[in-house]
Design a protein that fits this description.
The protein is α+β, with helices and mostly antiparallel strands. It has a single domain, classed as Ubiquitin-like (UB roll). The protein has two helices and three strands. A hairpin with a 5-residue loop joins β1 and β2.
């Protein structure tokens, strides 16, 4: 399964880094996400969000 990871970092000047990981379950995805998090943002990260990635081919749009 593909998961989207969003990391908030930067203290008062909040910034976001988003990337995708592939894993069999959410726990494994968290481990993979931690391993792939860029070293330069690790010390400033204060929030990490993990969610299933949206498949653009199956996504429904309002009014479509």
């Amino acid at each position: 399964m593909r998961y989207q990871v969003t990391v908030r970092y930067g203290g008062r000047r909040q910034r976001y880094h988003t990337y995708a990981v592939d894993a069999t379950d959410a726990g494994t995805a968290l481990e993979v996400a931690a391993a792939q998090m860029p070293a330069e943002i690790r010390a400033d990260a204060d929030l990490v969000e993990l969610r299933e990635a949206v498949d653009p081919e199956t996504r429904s749009y309002v009014g479509a």
